[in-house]
Amino acid sequence: MIIESASTRGMRHCETTALGVLLRHEGLDLSEPMLFGLGSGLAFVYWDGKGMDFPFLGGRVKPFQLTRNLDGRLGLGLAVRETASPRKAWQDVRAQLDAGKPVGLQLDSYHLDYFGSKVHFGGHVVAMYGYDDDRAYLVDTDQQGGAVTTSLSSLAKARAERGPMTARNRSFTITASSELAPSRDLVVGAIHACAVDFLNPPIANLGYRGIEKAAGRVEKWLERTDNPQRDLPLAALLMEKAGTGGALFRNLYRDFLGECVHLIDDSRLRTGHTMYGEAATMWTEVAKLIAGAGDTGDSTDLKQAGELLRDLSRVEHDAMRALAEVGT
């Protein structure tokens, strides 16, 4: 059973890719930056917990929060199903597909046949638009191939995996009106909510404070690993290539603000857009410096990355202060 009318266009980030598939099926076609921005998706986290092989730099809100934010803002009619039973989980998905409705799935990408990088990530999101006796038909990011397939057995394992960021066989569908549009009030609300969260982090690992904290920690990353040639280039790769759209999601947010400039005449919005353009360039340079330090073992690159991160903390703080005032 395949939904022939489903759009199978992959984009840069997994959750916005899945949302795009589901929304286009409902007649609502928004750009990926607009989906990301209306979902108040931008954030920052520096995480180095017990049992972690190497620290993690994250640039977005936690998995599925973007979808919930978008639903709350647009009133999408989001229906979420979770269950501990693999049998019930498959029945839930098959029923929606048989009714002609694509389904979003949160799962662990490690088990998917087409994934070249076998790393556990329980916050991955795909759209499913069909199945046959052996395989599931999915839409993933451009980087992973867009329209792809995986065995039904691998899909079941991916959905049932337990661990960090996983959900209990989570599936979701969306009901929306093609008449929905990103109005001025919706855009302002999304920008404001994102800015307030970024400027008021509950702990020092998050928001602009997290970037400042990362500055000091990154400088010592050569001491944090016994395999810098592996861990530092991988950290840089995750910042640039792992579904972030580049620059740790800052490219996506810059482009969202660029679209908003055409909807709202506000000098503070233009300031925020310009500053996030600068931030995006700086994040890409940070990634290059981290990768270079891993290749050479030279701490000079990490010191430069730390200096850039301190500048980034100030740039993003000031950008979000301007954005928090948009529309007031």
From TrEMBL:
Protein name as catalogued: Butirosin biosynthesis protein H, N-terminal
Domain Butirosin biosynthesis protein H N-terminal, first and last residues per copy: 13-141
Domain DUF4872: 154-323
Xref: InterPro entries: BtrH_N, DUF4872
Superkingdom, taxonomy of origin: Bacteria
